[in-house]
Amino acid sequence: MIKIESLNKSFGRIKALNDLNLNVKRGELLGIIGPNGAGKTTAIRMACCILKPDSGDIIIDGYSIHDDPIKIKSMIGYLPEEPNLYERFKAKDLLKYFAELYGVPKNDIDGKIQELLELVGMTKRSEDRINTFSKGLRQRISVARALVHDPDIIIFDEPTMGLDPETANSIRNFIKNLKGQKTMILCTHYMEEADLLCDRVAILNEGKIRDVGTPQYLKSKVHGEVILKIRVKNTGDINLIKNKLIQFPSVGAVNLVGGEYLISLKQRNEIHDIVDVFGNEVLSINTKEPTLEDVFIQAVKG
């Protein structure tokens, strides 16, 4: 459905995308995770024909972003991280404006708007102006706006960022209910969100895909059956400590996050000896099963 081919983009001396290649299957929900500045928003803005690449192409259902941008825009519903909404419009008038802009048949517009308002829980606020809405309500009406032309593809850029837990959960449920009906891309900083919702997850860092696969597959690649978390007073020389730790047969990977060492273990039988490496510097010890966050840390820092 979507093929990203050798995509490159620089902003001055900053290389935002570096020979990026990625495929999205029809009906799939693909998550893209990565640190700030990894190139996530740049890539999806190119897919939406908002930015042009320096080189490379994106083919969407056979159409190129270079040759068919208008066609591609009609196929995509895009929810940016910070949606720009016309403040003085009423909710229903905003949706009507975009429905007409996208060429939705006039006889279908009123019914479509009513359906979308109900879908995002905004029926009772349809006559209220956008400038009276909270961030959560603005996000709901932005979702409706992205769907007003019934696109085949929906792209979400940090859809739950900064929302209260109830609204964030309702947005996640909405995305979950669309699975299989639409082809979707979800850019998120929330690892649990990607794990919960996505069919596959791509890890993007420094403009390149570092790994891609189902959440289960990616978690299985973390070298160990358990993650040992050791918080210390003084992190010391990480290279020296790594060299000591990898001498243990059970140790797979070692990462330092803040003041905490994350150590992937194949077995638990050497935990006591591993902890002794840190001596009196140990503040706390915990173990946990590998998560998508561990995969992310290993891919980005490893």
Automatic annotation (TrEMBL):
<dbReference type="InterPro" id="IPR050763">
    <property type="entry name" value="ABC_transporter_ATP-binding"/>
</dbReference>
<feature type="domain" description="ABC transporter">
    <location>
        <begin position="2"/>
        <end position="231"/>
    </location>
</feature>
<dbReference type="GO" id="GO:0005524">
    <property type="term" value="F:ATP binding"/>
</dbReference>
<dbReference type="Pfam" id="PF00005">
    <property type="entry name" value="ABC_tran"/>
</dbReference>
<dbReference type="Pfam" id="PF13732">
    <property type="entry name" value="DrrA1-3_C"/>
</dbReference>
<dbReference type="InterPro" id="IPR003593">
    <property type="entry name" value="AAA+_ATPase"/>
</dbReference>
<keyword id="KW-0813">Transport</keyword>
<dbReference type="InterPro" id="IPR027417">
    <property type="entry name" value="P-loop_NTPase"/>
</dbReference>
<keyword id="KW-0547">Nucleotide-binding</keyword>
<keyword id="KW-0067">ATP-binding</keyword>
<dbReference type="InterPro" id="IPR003439">
    <property type="entry name" value="ABC_transporter-like_ATP-bd"/>
</dbReference>
<dbReference type="GO" id="GO:0016887">
    <property type="term" value="F:ATP hydrolysis activity"/>
</dbReference>
<protein>
    <submittedName>
        <fullName>ABC transporter ATP-binding protein</fullName>
    </submittedName>
</protein>
<dbReference type="InterPro" id="IPR025302">
    <property type="entry name" value="DrrA1/2-like_C"/>
</dbReference>
